[in-house]
Request: fold
Amino acid sequence: SYYLQEGWNAMNTQEYGEAINFFEYLIDISQNKLDLQIQSTHGLAWAKLFYSTTPLSENKKNDRDTSYGLFFDVENFIEQLDGESVEELNQIQCDIYAGKILYSDYMIYYYQNLLSNGGDVDGDEEQQRDYYSQGELSGNDENANGYIEDGLYALISDMEQNCEDYNAQNYIFDHNIAIDINDLKLILAKDYIRRAEYISAKDIINS
Reply:
């Protein structure tokens, strides 16, 4: 698809706003094409995530929240597949793990910063933080955000089991954006250190 390619070309040149426009347009014009919905929504999730890191983002948390929701939308589309072929489907599924890990890392420190600054009137920052750190262990949407959080350890474990290219450390995320499994493992190690679980952190670093 022209719009898909142009979206990733814009990602390559760090023109994330342009990438968002291309991916959103493709989503609008391909409502009945599941393969394009998967690929364009996947692209939009990453464009929103990277856009949130730029000065152009007027609300970084909102852009990250949108990105996170889009990763779940991609999963829902994938579940609807009935024998259809989607280019690089395994890569897209592995990208979803990576995107969720990056978002969880952001949310852990979002709530940690709130705690460090006295919290808010709800007083539940510690619990909210731990949903992203350790997961919603009941399997229910305990934080009422519309999704079930798996936690960092479960997401990393799923990647190690299902994403051979990440483990081989030769994975290139679509074009020129490299994501190394060790970078993602360090997020888990950092969280163990925050929780004073130093032996677990050491095991992750040495693995």
